[in-house]
Amino acid sequence: MSALLEVAGLDVHHGDLQALHGLELSVSAGETLAVIGANGAGKTTLLRAVAGSLPVSAGRVVLDGEPVEHLPAHQRVALGIALTPEGRRIFPSLDVEENLLVGAYRARRGPWDLASVYDLFPLVSDRRARSGAHLSGGEQQAVAIGRALMSNPRLLLLDEVSLGLAPVVVGEIYAALPRIVERGTTVLVVEQDLDQALGCADRVQCLLEGRTVLEGPAGSLSRDDVTAAYFGI
Amino acid sequence: MSAEAVEVRRGGRASWVALGALGVVVVLLAVVVPYQVSLGTLSNLVGLFVLVILGTTWNLMAGYAGMVSIGQQAFIGIGGYGVIHLSDAVGLPLLAAVGAAAVLSGLVAWATSFLVFRLAGGYFAIGTWVVAEVLKLVTGQVDALGGGSGLSLLAFRGTDRVTRVATVYWLGLALAVLVVLAAYLLMRSRTGLGLTALRDDPTAAAGLGVPVTRAKRVVYVGSSAAVGLAGALTALTTLRVTPESVFSVQFTAAMIFVVLIGGIGTIEGPILGAVVYFLLEDRLADLGAWYLVVLGLVAVVVVLVAPRGLWGLLTRVAPIEVFPLSHRVGPRGPVRDAGLPSRT
Amino acid sequence: MDWVGAVVQGILLGGQYALLACGLSLVFGVMRIVNLAHGVLAVAAAYVVLWLTVEVSLPLLLGVVVVVPLFAALGYALQRGLLNRALRQGELSPLLVSFGIGVVLTNLLQETFSADTRSIAIGDLGTAGVSVGPLTVGVFALVTCAAGVGVIAAVQLFLARTRTGRAMRATSDDPETAQLMGIDQRHLYGLATAIAVGTVALAGAFVGMSTQFSPTYGDLVLIFAFEAVIIGGLGSLWGTLWGGLVLGVAQTVGSQLDPAYGVLAGHVVFLLVLLVRPSGLMPRTVTA
């Protein structure tokens, strides 16, 4: 299987602080990779650097053989990278359907449109006329994922899906993941919740202080290994 | 290096030298220049002092407190009309009239701040302009202020021209020095430090409890009172004010050019900018509107390419602060130890 | 002129102010900047129309049709060339850059067309009137007002219904996330300023046909446009239309009291609105 996303020697700085140190990462087409790690491990930084909303200091980000690290975020969308950002960031003055339509601003050809997103998340369909400012956390997360899908990405970056949500809601959203993957989208998910990460992913990569400390197929890793790597013990 | 070995310094020897040099210039302007140049030049130099006051105060607002006002001509007008009305109609001695005109400007600024502070950013800028326009239109309707034709200063009647020009010159120099010193002291005060913190990092400053609105109001009122002084000086030089002449937005345009060219956000920049603007205006006045076309282009280029202005370019070559506001942290004791921190 | 007539005149004048203010309101809503050259651009458009009709002998309507896209292109270039760059440096820079542009334009107009007042001749249209009950209303004033209402409605519809309009509202809410949707902020800002400068050019043409103007007339145009935006409340173009109407009526009713009080009455209404708005006037987003 060829790598859809190849990250090599990636350094990212927040001012004087270095958040990622020569990070290596690879996601094959059709695969689901979960990046896990504690707060401040550099997970969100990694996703933002791949999506183009953070500048990289060194290293490469390659999408299907094409280097993209020098491209602004909006051009990476056209190439097939979509990010659901931390905190969901729903546009508050747009209603739900308009939020989805903005997601399709630079849409590629593909299976995702309003109908298929509504089909995937009936919850979103019910709320289509509601203002983006008046959504529950779970509704926001579903809209954010739907909005990212509207661009028909090859690579979907999901940041902290479970953060601040009730377990039932988290379960519902993760239940939709296989249907996204089966339509040909490769998923890179960042998650603090180990159970969700191990449950949804083919492979897991654990970060600690901006470096990879453990990686392997989700099935082959014991919970103890992961916990040890997670906390850097 | 232990904590006690660290010392926080403001300024340094270069600062004292530079400040000394500026002091010498002021002394020369006070005691030598008046006896060396023509009366006309002396009168023109008052224009330089006015520019120093205008630049310094506009910079306090925009460079430190983040307030871009295009309505400072309101206080030129109040200062100009104020000094003439208070000395001629009310009968105050000239110096007292100048001071009272400044106080009046400050009071009007304080009162109108409650209106214009409701506007942010660019809308604040135009809001202050509307206030100035209102004052212009109202002044033109008041018969006691001469209506649309304005007022002429009578207080100098019977004074010979030499005494008059010399008096205004020395007054202008003294006021310019006072305003610059006051601006420096304000920026060293708690209010000033709070504003600098706010400019550099608004979130952190708010978190540290900097009383933002209060600090901004202090700067707005103080700056406007000083612009009132400049307005009084202008009236004492031209001897005549009309609504159109003193409430003209051109005064604020001059302030902006002085600050941008000299360097926004430093005390030194506007002084340098005032000198440059004064010389350019003198030399290029014949060019008419083309001169302002060039100035406008220069302003655009400065903002985009060299936002720290001439003073910023100068200090990149030679890092001096005549009015030290920044602090440096270094090891205590003789400088030669600097490279060899002791291990304890 | 009686009081009812003054109010009707004011409403018609207000349509012109709304047209002047539309772009100011849009640009502030989308990118939170105020273009201080807004008024001068209107006056510059009036001069270009004057030049096209007098020197090139174009028919008036054609002159207006040429000037609007020309100025829209100029607006796009200004935004992409100068203002986007200034925006990256913070809040004050775009304001100061637009101030500089305003000074340059004003004085270029002065050098090119002199400081004399001019006006664009419109022939019989200037004196034609229609009777509405006991009142006679100027046809030209009606046309201007209709143009104002029409442009505001069109821009509002554009924001509410089109892909680019939605992208503008999304960018107004959250520019960083909008980029993650594939929206090129620099281009979008260029389009917003193109609309703003294009509409203010149309407004400037109407100003040039209805009144005497000179290169410095842009100052007054900027102030009137700004007052219309603030009176109407930030954040909605319908509000700006309303603000323009209130300002127009205040000015004509003020003039009815005493010809010298017209402009002043508008300022006073503006200051009163500023005084009584309880929450102040902090920026909100453009709404559909």
Automatic annotation (TrEMBL), chain A:
Domain of life per record: Bacteria
Cross-referenced SMART domains: AAA (SM00382)
Any single Pfam family the record assigns to this protein: ABC_tran
Keywords: Amino-acid transport, ATP-binding, Nucleotide-binding, Transport
Key word Flavoprotein present: no
InterPro entries, per database record: AAA+_ATPase, ABC_transporter-like_ATP-bd, ABC_transporter-like_CS, BCAA_Transport_ATP-bd_LivF, P-loop_NTPase
SUPFAM superfamilies xref list: P-loop containing nucleoside triphosphate hydrolases
A molecular function (GO) term: ATP binding
Start and end residues of each ABC transporter domain: 5-233
Xref: PANTHER family: HIGH-AFFINITY BRANCHED-CHAIN AMINO ACID TRANSPORT ATP-BINDING PROTEIN, HIGH-AFFINITY BRANCHED-CHAIN AMINO ACID TRANSPORT ATP-BINDING PROTEIN LIVF
Family in the record: Belongs to the ABC transporter superfamily.
Protein name per its UniProtKB record: ABC transporter ATP-binding protein
Taxonomic path: Bacteria, Bacillati, Actinomycetota, Actinomycetes, Propionibacteriales
Automatic annotation (TrEMBL), chain B:
Presence of the UniProt keyword Chaperone in the record: no
Record's keyword annotation contains Transcription regulation: no
Parts of the chain that traverse the membrane: 14-33, 90-110, 168-187, 218-239, 251-277, 289-306
Organism encoding this protein: Nocardioides lentus
Name this protein carries in UniProt: Branched-chain amino acid ABC transporter permease
Membrane topology: Multi-pass membrane protein
Cellular compartment(s): Cell membrane
Alphabetical UniProt keywords: Cell membrane, Membrane, Transmembrane, Transmembrane helix
TrEMBL record, chain C:
Transmembrane helix is among the record's keywords: yes
Main location: membrane
Transmembrane segments: 6-29, 36-54, 60-78, 90-109, 135-159, 188-209, 221-247, 259-276
Membrane topology annotation: Multi-pass membrane protein
Keyword Transferase attributed: no
A Pfam family this chain is assigned to: BPD_transp_2
Location within or outside the cell: Cell membrane
Keywords from the UniProt entry: Amino-acid transport, Cell membrane, Membrane, Transmembrane, Transmembrane helix, Transport
CDD domains according to UniProt: TM_PBP1_LivH_like (cd06582)
Protein family: Belongs to the binding-protein-dependent transport system permease family. LivHM subfamily.
PANTHER family linked to this entry: AMINO ACID ABC TRANSPORTER PERMEASE PROTEIN, BRANCHED-CHAIN AMINO ACID TRANSPORT SYSTEM PERMEASE PROTEIN LIVH
The protein's name: Branched-chain amino acid ABC transporter permease
